[in-house]
Hints:
Elements: E1 7-11, H1 21-33, E2 38-42, H2 46-53, E3 58-65, E4 74-78, H3 98-108, E5 114-121, H4 133-149
Parallel strand pairs: 1-2, 1-3, 3-5
Antiparallel strand pairs: 4-5
Helix pairs in contact: 1-4, 2-3
Amino acid sequence: MQQNKPLLIGVGQDFRGDDAMGLLLVRKLKPILSSVWDLVESNGDGTLLMELWKDRECVYIIDAVSGPKEPGELYHFSAHESIPPADWFRTSTHHWGIAEAIEMSRVLQTLPKALFFWGIEGRIFTHSDELSPEVNAAMEELEVLLLQHAQL
């Protein structure tokens, strides 16, 4: 991986329904974007996320969330303006995840110059190998947005 390329981190867990969205989207985009971006999969562990984005200029994180909106709704945050609330990730298998990693990086002054979070409100976080129809549709919309950011 090259430090000067933007980094796209897909967060999730296979076989947990909508939680796999970040992984699936990274897998889909890898053949298209790998010449201009580095793309990696993550289980969302906060310390691993911090290691992945260490010394990076631009990072994009995509993940399914369990927030206040309807399934399939998109969220977008710049980590320098705000962070997603930690309780949106209460379905995570890690107690120290994305929100905590962003805040810890902010405190340690290791936050990338640009760190963007894209989330999709999920519906299914139980054992399943399929996405809900709402998340599947939103994932297609997010794919287009990411391709626009990559200027492809």
